[in-house]
């Protein structure tokens, strides 16, 4: 153990980094071989090495945490204090805001604390990769903060995409079946689906620990987050390392379903818009107007477009991390890329409130009333 700590201290001074999928025991055993110098070489040179880069990373994390927490607190307050928001769509927005805020309250602050600890003290903390050998993996491995933070981040990511999927389905019902919307989409059903998505998302987030004893959670210096790491068997990955593919498979399946439903909704919107334009120009006879008699409302159409933008934003932020996970499963290690991939996904937690502010007039009105409660209380808002 002393040679291991000595190696860590020496490498810390040069800013060396460790692979996402490296076992602490593998480092110690590899240090005795002739290729130890190559195995312990720095893996990044841009975003993770040096005091200046670490300081800039901490400033970025603090700013992001503040933006996530403040933005989602405002979102929750607006949706909870306006009567018009107490709808199935409003409950889904609250679920999405809670998942985003948990990232800003738990995940990002833990990375800030760890990074500051690494800059102030020379000894790495117990949960730092390579800081202490893990004798066991799975649910029975030694408990440390990453055993909480890692599943929270993964679970909140899955909650976000499942909630966006539910929001898309809810809007599609409002567009395709406007007369049956209140019957098909009820508050009780929506709350049940929200609870189901939270339970299923966090169960999936714990899947690598539940299904295998060859995984543990550790703070990774490349991504600056708590990541799943397989326990190496000599110089090889464990045979069940592909369990991590469950994460991108789940997200891309829901994203694909969300995209399909959005296409169906937008096709219907385009058809209604074209028919309405032809009616206004007199190109269609009066009998053709029956098809537009029960068209979706303007608010439903705009909400569908907003959800489409949310889907695009989440897909763009999740795609880099999916590529990173696939690369690690097949044996590639991209240290600099992992930092950008994980934090692009984390930054998505403050994008939703920005999209609402730009797209949702009712949300903007709720924010205005929230900061002018002495003039016009939120409960007196009129649609």
From TrEMBL:
<keyword id="KW-0297">G-protein coupled receptor</keyword>
<comment type="similarity">
    <text>Belongs to the G-protein coupled receptor 1 family.</text>
</comment>
<keyword id="KW-1133">Transmembrane helix</keyword>
<dbReference type="GO" id="GO:0001609">
    <property type="term" value="F:G protein-coupled adenosine receptor activity"/>
</dbReference>
<feature type="transmembrane region" description="Helical">
    <location>
        <begin position="243"/>
        <end position="267"/>
    </location>
</feature>
<protein>
    <submittedName>
        <fullName>Adenosine receptor A3</fullName>
    </submittedName>
</protein>
<feature type="transmembrane region" description="Helical">
    <location>
        <begin position="148"/>
        <end position="169"/>
    </location>
</feature>
<dbReference type="Pfam" id="PF00001">
    <property type="entry name" value="7tm_1"/>
</dbReference>
<keyword id="KW-0325">Glycoprotein</keyword>
<feature type="transmembrane region" description="Helical">
    <location>
        <begin position="56"/>
        <end position="79"/>
    </location>
</feature>
<dbReference type="GO" id="GO:0030425">
    <property type="term" value="C:dendrite"/>
</dbReference>
<keyword id="KW-0675">Receptor</keyword>
<dbReference type="InterPro" id="IPR000276">
    <property type="entry name" value="GPCR_Rhodpsn"/>
</dbReference>
<feature type="transmembrane region" description="Helical">
    <location>
        <begin position="91"/>
        <end position="112"/>
    </location>
</feature>
<keyword id="KW-1003">Cell membrane</keyword>
<keyword id="KW-0812">Transmembrane</keyword>
<feature type="domain" description="G-protein coupled receptors family 1 profile">
    <location>
        <begin position="71"/>
        <end position="356"/>
    </location>
</feature>
<dbReference type="GO" id="GO:0005886">
    <property type="term" value="C:plasma membrane"/>
</dbReference>
<dbReference type="InterPro" id="IPR017452">
    <property type="entry name" value="GPCR_Rhodpsn_7TM"/>
</dbReference>
<feature type="transmembrane region" description="Helical">
    <location>
        <begin position="337"/>
        <end position="358"/>
    </location>
</feature>
<feature type="transmembrane region" description="Helical">
    <location>
        <begin position="190"/>
        <end position="211"/>
    </location>
</feature>
<keyword id="KW-0807">Transducer</keyword>
<feature type="transmembrane region" description="Helical">
    <location>
        <begin position="307"/>
        <end position="331"/>
    </location>
</feature>
<keyword id="KW-0472">Membrane</keyword>
<dbReference type="GO" id="GO:0045202">
    <property type="term" value="C:synapse"/>
</dbReference>
């Amino acid at each position: 153990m002393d040679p291991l700590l000595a190696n860590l201290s020496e490498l810390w001074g040069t800013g060396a980094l460790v692979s996402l999928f490296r076992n602490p025991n593998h480092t110690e055993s590899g240090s005795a071989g002739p290729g130890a110098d190559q195995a312990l070489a720095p893996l990044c040179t841009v975003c993770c090495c040096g005091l200046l880069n670490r300081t800039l990373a901490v400033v970025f994390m603090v700013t992001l945490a503040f933006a996530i927490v403040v933005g989602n607190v405002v979102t929750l307050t607006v949706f909870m204090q306006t009567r018009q928001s107490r709808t199935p769509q409003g409950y889904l927005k609250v679920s999405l805001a809670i998942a985003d805020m948990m990232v800003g309250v738990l995940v990002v602050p833990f990375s800030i604390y760890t990074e500051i600890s690494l800059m102030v003290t020379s000894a790495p903390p117990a949960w730092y990769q390579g800081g202490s050998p893990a004798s066991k993996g799975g649910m029975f491995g030694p408990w440390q903060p990453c055993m909480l933070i890692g599943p929270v981040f993964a679970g909140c990511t899955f909650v976000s995409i499942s909630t966006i999927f539910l929001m898309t389905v809810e809007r599609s019902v409002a567009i395709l079946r406007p007369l049956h919307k209140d019957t098909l989409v009820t508050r009780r059903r929506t709350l049940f689906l929200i609870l189901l998505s939270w339970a299923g998302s966090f169960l999936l987030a714990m899947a690598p620990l539940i299904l295998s004893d060859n995984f543990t959670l550790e703070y990774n210096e490349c991504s600056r987050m708590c990541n799943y790491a397989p326990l190496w068997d000599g110089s090889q990955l464990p045979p069940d390392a592909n369990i991590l593919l469950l994460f991108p498979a789940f997200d891309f399946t829901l994203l694909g379903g969300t995209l399909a439903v959005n296409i169906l909704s937008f096709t219907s919107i385009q058809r209604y818009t074209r028919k309405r334009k032809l009616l206004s120009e007199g190109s269609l006879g009066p009998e053709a107007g029956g098809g537009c008699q029960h068209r979706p409302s303007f608010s439903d159409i705009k909400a569908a477009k907003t959800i489409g933008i949310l889907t695009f934003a989440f897909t763009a932020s999740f795609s880099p991390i999916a590529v990173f996970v696939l690369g690690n499963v097949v044996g590639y290690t991209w240290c600099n890329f992992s930092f950008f991939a994980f934090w692009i996904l984390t930054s998505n937690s403050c994008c939703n409130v920005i999209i609402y502010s730009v797209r949702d007039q009712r949300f903007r009105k709720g924010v205005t009333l929230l900061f002018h409660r002495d003039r016009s209380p939120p409960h007196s808002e009129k649609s």
